[in-house]
């Protein structure tokens, strides 16, 4: 494996880590309207209270690593999807402050406004992530210098919107299972059917997107002919999705959460397979694609980055472990809660 | 309006709003570590009460810092794509290191710091506090490294690459440690930390002074004020020393910037302007009040040695003067004010008379404003003074250490030879101008839309921050053990009523 491929894999790992971790807290945000009274709303919010901030750092680190290791791709993607990213940042800011501000004033109007902002920003951010992935699979038009030459509306085609919905349903499913694990009693009972709804919607959209991809973007599957072993991931992915209803039916919710996490990882893997060896595919001319070689930093930087990641990641996993362990179990509201 | 100007405005807006918060976080982090260490050592409940109160305020500042910080991470790509392509190989490593080494540490342990009071023991809680404080300091290290590299680049070379037949240039790392310890990193980092300690100290003193004036939470406020005053005094004095050495270093590596900061238009003896209105078009200062030879003395320890002026730089390579000159002067002026204020307060505190000086306490209530402004102004001076470059090119120096001048009498910048598609080579200055760094595919309309969006949300955030902060201050620390001395008669009556209610309930069968 070359250094460039290693970094492509590491970026996929960071993206998968982000999607699994922030996926459930974005999901909780989208399910927030299911809470019926203030106590339940606070339970929802505090189930992710100590965790969402750390989860978002995976995205920030993904962005930093993309900048450092594939600067050409970082520059093209962010400037090309300008308005989409500005909207995403807008949603992420609103989400952070709605979590922080909601509990600061005991007035129904104030709290209702932040509840809506929390729901809207979680939904918006998730949808935009999905749209970005959809654009990644399809590719975008680039010029000789690797600069985006399309229009904003080109980024919002039916395929991309469908992938956006797929992501919404996936994170809602993931978030519902997470919330089920963190709550008890009546709230938990109410979440039961929603896990099924989310699973049903996700499965239907999953099939739709798969068919659409194979018909509309056949290049996305080209790597499976080149690397037949990768097909096992598809099989495992389908098995994971099929296992979910069984786990839910048998009330093995921990396993259901593992299965939804696995589904997310598998989908990130499929996304990476659709791209490789490109970081960004040029839809107008394959020769103009930003590949892991053409878009990469120098070997020295790739090697330094690997060293930094090698030293840093064990620590990151250790703190993440400490924090998740400290806040394990059902949500409890105490003096320091939101 | 063009994309360049709009993108610069947007960057200024987003970074300045963001930068209100990180210095507070760094400065208050130190105070939290102190409070928790005192609690562990003495077990006195007042430290725990104080720790909990300041943690709540800290968490609020931190949340807004994080929310506005994400924008910074991605804005390099959205608005400065050409810059990102040029610096990514070098700059990106520092940013990625910040994510891995600092942000995970901060955000992970922040959860324990804020939500863990009743879940973990005091020792683990103290550990989490230390980790959060360290995380915010690590974060400042990497971002200042990245910024300092743009000011005084080192540990890199500029190479020519081709894509689809099109040649382009970019900076690539040659030595990671030379990049990290480039000539200005240490000076600037120390100054940023000191600035953060000043803000943290003045922030705590502001709130504590207000409590003292309102005769609320007095025991808590006296202790908080005294601790912060000590930090503030030491930091204010240190800022002057660090500022002096930093300015000398700026002269060594970025003489055009120092000339702009001091409105030193003509090469020759440097006078230190105390006041003046620089006129950039005519290259002179109107209504100037100056210490003759003062600038020469600060730079060379000698009142007559000439100081390089803006006239030695090509007109298109000269930074604007007015903004750096004014912001630098204000920053230094505030800094001198902090020294006078903290020394006077320290003297009075030592004599035991400080808390009776109501007017002085009022000064401390508002002094947090200038403290935050001084941090902002320092960055404005540093960043505008670097223009027109976003990555400063090196200056060619002769064997005597003096800058080498070209045929027109201007300072020569280091160059790289670029081979042209038609054959032959051309020398290009080894830096990048801000104008060349802007995104190729972004339109002015898009940037205008994003400025409107960020402007609106930051205005709202700023207002909400003040509103919520005010509520937290009004609520005050929980009076767990401290003698409950209620501020108003109404509150006292309220307490009495609660008490009666309790009795009545108790009396009911």
Outline the structure in words.
The complex is a heterodimer of chains A (338) and B (509). Chain A has 338 residues and is mainly alpha-helical. Chain A has one domain (3-326). Chain A contains 12 helices and 2 strands. Chain A has a two-stranded antiparallel sheet with strand order 1-2. The longest helix of chain A has 32 residues, at 185-216. With 509 residues, chain B is mostly helical. Chain B has one domain. Chain B is 65% helix and 10% strand. Chain B is built from 14 helices and 10 strands. In chain B, the strands form 5 sheets. Chain B has a two-stranded antiparallel ribbon. Chain B has a two-stranded antiparallel ribbon with strand order 3-6. In chain B, a hairpin with a 5-residue loop joins strand 8 (415-419) and strand 9 (425-429). In chain B, helix 7 packs antiparallel against helix 12, helix 8 (218-253) packs across helix 9 and helix 11 (322-351) runs antiparallel to helix 12 (358-384). Chain B is globular and about 80 Å long. The chains are: A mainly alpha (338), B mainly alpha (509). Chains A and B meet through helix 3, helix 4, helix 5 and helix 12 of A and helix 3, helix 4, strand 2 and helix 13 of B.
